[in-house]
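Issue: copy button drops trailing tokens. Both records pasted manually instead:
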Amino acid sequence: MKTSEYLIKSINGGDNKIFRELYGNEPAELKRHARRYETLLRQFEENFGKKEVEIFSSPGRTEIGGNHTDHNWGRVLAGAVNLDNICVAAKNNKNIIRIVSEGYPRFEVDLASLAPVAAEKYTSAALVRGICSRFKESGYKIGGFDACIDGGVPKGSGLSSSASFEVLIGVILNELFNDGKIDPVQNAIIGQYSENNYFGKPCGLMDQVAIAMGGLITIDFKEPANPVVKKVNFDFTSTGYSLVITDTGGSHADLNDEYASIPADMKAVAAELGAKVLRQVTLDQIIEIAPRIREKVGDRAILRAIHFQKDNQRVVDQVNALERNDFHAFLEMVVESGYSSYMYNQNIFAVINPREQGVSLALALSELVLKGEGAWRVHGGGFAGTIQAFVPKNLLEKYLNTLEHFFGKGACKTLFIRHQGACKVEL
């Protein structure tokens, strides 16, 4: 624990090793983050008084390979990014967690009762209570703390701000009360448990694991209760490429049925082969049975089943390419995955509103600029929202100008894969 004055001095305007590891080497970015931290430290003092504190960082994440594969027990490739939620926290020697986060109402969670509270559903308080409950059930220590959070992972950005918050709370509890002994994957599983059982959203585990681990990771969900997590040995920052996420501005409202149709279609095909999910069958089996089941399950379901099988294998091939340092082959497979999502998985625009095709337009513009030199694909669930592109330095300015000409200034976020997962920031 250190005083705010000591930490501000150690931040040194962003000129320090840990900031360069978290945020890169661009002087303007380092100074911007220094201001974030200094403002948050002062905000903590205004809300909770002068105390010795700790600082924490929890990144966002990006899905890189395996689009809509996890819910059918498939494989994914994901990475932590350099947009993060940061937090200043300190024990308060009470049995209450008190959190202030800009843009959200201040809230408290009394640890005397850790049962789900119906009125808290879909709130941050529910997530905190659920995480504390699971910590305690797992034999870990919990306790009261005060915290101020700066949410640098934008809500609705497709970079998983909710999972970043969950893992952040887990890291705070881990460091303040458990001497940092809890494994990152266990922290991720606890966050998922809270989101499923307290917040009320049936999410998978990819987001939390990518955020907790940092860097590039691949996850195999063949046994969903015991996913196999592997760190991918590849230095993205050495490629000279930027990872650009573009928000196309489309609304996710009224898309629940569209999202739900994807796992439903895939599982309908699996069921015709006596299986629960597509991971339990092969592409050859699907092709063999397809003519007999077209009328029953629909052609779209068969196309989505083909997408699953190809994209699930593609994750393995992408990891192999990265580990042998063949970035060109990796980029080609990113494009292949994007085409597969477009043609087979069909999650690029909503059939209920074909006039709105922001994702389709962003992908078309990306191909115009990047074909032969970069890669582009839908990002996350699809239908609306964001796309992802890998852009070489010589085309970055042109790419940003082209996409923001259509979607507005600030629609593009230029990122990189950061090595550090959710962590205590040691200044």
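Record 2 (pasted manually too):
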Amino acid sequence: MAGCHALLLESNHCPELLARSAYPPFLKRRIAGQHGHLSNAQAAAALAALRHPRLHTIVGAHLSERNNQPALARRTLAGALDCAEREVLLSGRAGLDWLGV
């Protein structure tokens, strides 16, 4: 990843929102499980590990409409990069409708 200038990274859910959601327990376990979706914190940890000087564009993707909020995902990813929240882009469910740009 050292030559990567841009990164599209799943930031699917907030564990607290997922826990309080109306999803059935089996679905919550699947989403939060080892082979499920990346939470905001997991995405931030991956981003921190992949960070290098040439990486300049970060896009948070596949945000859950019910179990995440754009502001939460953006804040968490920006924290991993120690950058302003406005520097983190978010994509919508279709990947084409940019959020907050």
